[in-house]
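Predicting holo structure, S-adenosyl-L-homocysteine bound.
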Amino acid sequence: MKSNTEFNKEIDENVQGNATMVESNGTNGKKLYLESYGCQMNFADSEIVASIMSENGYNTTKDVDEADVILLNTCSIRENAEQRIRKRLTEFKKKKDSKSELKVGILGCMAERLKSQLLEEEKLVDLVVGPDAYRSLPSLVEETDGGQKAVNVLLSREETYADISPVRLDKNGVTSFISIMRGCDNMCSFCVVPFTRGRERSRDPETIVKEAQELFDKGYREVTLLGQNVDSYRWNVNSKKEIIDPAKPTVNFAQLLEKVALVNPDLRIRFSTSHPKDLTDEVAETMAKYENICNYIHLPVQSGNSDVLKRMNRGYTREWYLDRLKAIKDRIPDCAISTDIITGFCGETEEEHQDTVSLMKEVEYDYAYMFAYSERPKTLAERKFEDDVPEDVKKRRLTEVIELQQKSSLKNNKKYLNKVYKVLVEGKSRRSDEHMFGRNSQNAVFVFPKGDTKAGDYVNVKAHDCTAATLLAEIVD
Ligand code: SAH
Ligand code: SF4
Ligand code: F3S
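Done. Tokens:
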């Protein structure tokens, strides 16, 4: 079994993201190096950025030393995410000092949060571009040619980049992301996202279905529909729930799921993130109706105590959350559930923390992303509450939930032993070239001898052994 730190590191990296590089084709002779941090939505945005830059003639490179332009697509969710990026910017600053024509730009949530501060105070970058301003990137880069700085951090109520065909940066050619909405209107008190991503807006469903169809035609077999709160997806309905154009149909998230599921029965659908306050029975029913909508739901609880949830402004109680889980399990008994948890939120007592522990014991999550609370500037929590749980207490509580989750993950994986599951083959296993890996509908990872399978195939497998993270399996007929 993995050590605690390894487990935590893996979790942290999953959410904060690793640096990744893009390759696309262009012709203006200039080379772009793009590095991404943060959530899946930020990685999906990097594909939009790559597309816009490549349309404007930029060739991308994996080698930072041959770049003319360096762009960092950043995350502000926790302080350590920003610290990591600052460190990276300092490294790039050294490169700039020895290569005067090199441009460094910061994109994404940290750009939006700090705006021109990064230009004025620290002179680390030439370019600051927020998440709704990527269409202006090529002209902004051009503006910096004469040594000026360029900034566009305007947030939009409409921008969804619906017409831009993303350059796929995921290398497996089997699974991909589709952004279905942007922004967030929820104002959870700990969260910086509403400030960095702006108001919630949904993307035209026809462009989503078209993108799913195009991916399927290119050989992709799984799409994950992305939004900060997918359950509040709505098309042709305004925030007061009034129909905008009576001549046109309205589309909610359950209906969107159905439309994408109908693209092809061999295209698997996943989605993230569901919000417990908005998850409807209709979504669970649609999941149950279509075999290709995976039996897996990421339903972040954050805390198992209703008073803490109230301070977090999450809009639900422990009981409501458990009722939503029941609504899912009643319709999809084998549905896997994962969650996000924050330990040591403002004023969290030991008893309140124990409610999170007891909820985790009750639910036995398949997977969890767990974090110590990190105060973010301008959020409701920063303004209203004191960040009063000592750092060592936050960390101890975090360790406690991580250890508990490891046990649940192992127990859940054991449930899959000696049964046959259909998995989508995603590629070679990290352990050996002779093994492939794939996931079942519940998102559990199976590793098995290659045989004559290739990425994109569906195969039936049966596992004989497992760890908390992986099932060791054989292909069966
Ligand atoms: N929209 C998603 C969450 C996006 S952020 C939702 O509502 O569930 C991903 C996760 O980061 C959150 O679920 C939360 O667990 C964690 N997170 C967000 N802000 C945080 C903070 N200030 N400190 C620690 N963890 C935080
Ligand atoms: Fe942040 Fe809450 Fe919006 Fe999620 S739903 S992005 S936690 S404000
Ligand atoms: Fe980070 Fe922004 Fe995503 S803050 S988690 S990159 S929306």
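The chain has 15 helices and 21 strands.
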